[in-house]
Design brief:
- The chain is of the alpha/beta class and 447 residues long.
- The chain folds into 3 domains: 88 residues, NAD(P)-binding Rossmann-like Domain (Rossmann fold, 3-Layer(aba) Sandwich), CATH 3.40.50; 210 residues, Mur-like, catalytic domain (UDP-N-acetylmuramoyl-L-alanine:D-glutamate ligase); 132 residues, Mur ligase, C-terminal domain (Protein-Tyrosine Phosphatase, Chain A, Alpha-Beta Complex).
- The protein has 17 helices and 20 strands.
- Strand 4, helix 4 and strand 5 form a beta-alpha-beta unit.
- It catalyses: UDP-N-acetyl-alpha-D-muramoyl-L-alanine + D-glutamate + ATP = UDP-N-acetyl-alpha-D-muramoyl-L-alanyl-D-glutamate + ADP + phosphate + H(+).
Length: 447
């Protein structure tokens, strides 16, 4: 019998990881990327003797696949995906593929906002408690690459809706859904319910032995839950109401109950992550830790000493009594809302970039009450001007991180915060949100 042929579309972190794992298990592997492949990934493929192509998709090298693993970034509307579907060739995600080859249990974290922070915090707590744990998914090293080289007992995986769309038999042992807000609607026919249905796939295939952790304060989650059968044991969390089994906030103290008489309490002032949204993130991570029966002291200690990820509400500098914060990872409106909500001073807001069909209405109240000026950074800022011309006196256009920082520096008064929180993707002026954040930080350091 001939070897099964696995074709991988996209040669980034996840694609190359999938190629490593497929090669290890004796498949005939071919990697195809419509763009250019980064040098480090090219040399990784060459080292493993895996054939690949870049800057094109050659139909006859792809449509002979037994199965295709695609990068989460490739939409279902791409011509090559349409051709695969027409030829009835299964298309799956790297996560789906990797799970077949590991006995490790998975903690899968999704949501429109806070998933990177919650994934990192959960991993930090587990690692400090001595759990043999890996970190992967949308963050860090690819899940498949780790499955091919390491043996972990648990993985904490950050899972995007795009990944979930290509996951079918995969099951999360512990699923966490933080929130559902309008994001990436361009991939979901501009319908929030389609995007919500995608997020709910995080609990597919779960049994009563599994765990589902979700935010009881999130309207869209509650709406979607009415339409969904949940088999897993549920642990909701809330900052608005008391919850018997799960987590809640009362008098500035978080209470986490997963078993009778095993409560964990912690004052929110002790949390490393401040701001309302981070109380939710900390509750979600805390429930995971309690479900795994980790010791309260260990959980408290880790939740108190965690350092947040780069480009997410990252303190850059304080210059002439003005604080500069890099929140370049805020690529949607909701993230920017969270950022504004967590800053305690008046703000000069740097925003803009590639607009994904954004609805800026949810920002209006915060902009009116907190934002002194908006500095737009992007090729086309028309929508931002239209959205906020009645809410803020000054809106300025700039076309580089350097220019944006210079303008913000002159607009900011003592005691203000200059906040880069774009609410948009970065591809018009930058390689990615990391590049945007790094250029912003470099510009601030030159002031």
């Amino acid at each position: 019998m001939e070897t099964n042929r696995i074709v991988i579309l996209g040669a980034g972190e996840s694609g190359v990881g999938a190629a490593m794992l497929a090669k290890k298990h004796g498949f005939d592997v071919f990697v195809s990327d419509f763009g250019a492949i980064a040098d480090r990934y090219k040399s990784a493929l060459e080292e493993l003797n895996i054939s690949f192509e870049e800057k094109q998709h050659t139909d006859n090298l792809i449509l002979n696949a037994t199965e295709v693993i695609k990068s989460p970034g490739i939409p279902a509307t791409a011509p090559i995906i349409k051709a695969l579907v027409k030829n009835k060739i299964p298309v799956i995600s790297e996560i789906e593929f990797a799970k077949r080859y590991t006995k490790a249990k998975t903690i899968c974290i999704t949501g429109s906002n806070g998933k990177s922070t919650t994934t990192m915090l959960t991993y930090h707590i587990l690692k400090n408690a001595g759990v043999n744990v890996g970190l992967g998914g949308n963050i860090g090293q690819s899940f498949a690459a780790q499955v091919s080289t390491t043996e972990f007992d648990w993985y904490v995986l950050e899972i995007s809706s795009f990944m979930l769309d290509d996951m079918f038999d995969f099951k999360a042992d512990i699923a966490v859904l933080l929130n559902i807000t309008a994001d990436h609607l361009d991939r979901y026919d501009y319908k929030l319910e389609n995007y919500a249905a995608s997020k709910m796939r995080i609990i597919q295939n779960q049994t009563e032995n599994d765990v589902f952790i979700y935010c009881a304060d999130d309207d869209e989650t509650n709406k979607a839950l009415k339409e969904t059968k949940v088999n897993a044991k549920q642990y909701p969390f809330s900052i608005r109401k008391k919850i018997e089994t799960g987590a809640y906030l009362e008098n500035q103290t978080i209470h986490i109950n997963t078993q009778p008489k095993q409560q964990l309490t912690m004052s929110i002032t002790e949390l490393a992550l401040q701001g309302k949204h981070n109380i939710y993130n900390s509750m979600a991570s805390g429930i995971v830790a309690k479900v795994l029966e980790l010791r309260n002291e260990t959980i408290r200690e880790s939740m108190g000493n965690f350092k947040n990820i780069e480009h997410r509400l990252e303190f850059v500098a304080k210059i002439s009594d003005v604080i500069y914060i890099n929140d370049s990872k805020a690529t949607n409106v909701n993230s920017t809302w969270y950022a504004l909500e967590s800053v305690g001073t008046d703000v000069v807001l740097i925003m803009g970039g590639v607009d994904k069909g954004n609805d800026y209405d949810m920002l209006k109240d915060l902009v009116r009450s907190k934002v002194r000026a908006i500095v737009c950074m992007g090729k086309d800022n028309k929508r931002i001007h239209e959205a906020f011309e009645d809410d803020v006196e000054i809106i300025v256009n700039t076309f580089s991180a350097n220019e944006a920082v210079q303008v913000a520096y002159h607009l900011a008064k003592k005691g203000n915060t200059v906040l880069l929180s774009p609410a948009c993707a970065s591809f018009d002026l930058f390689k990615n949100y990391e590049d945007r954040g790094n250029q912003f930080k470099a510009a601030v350091k030159e002031l």
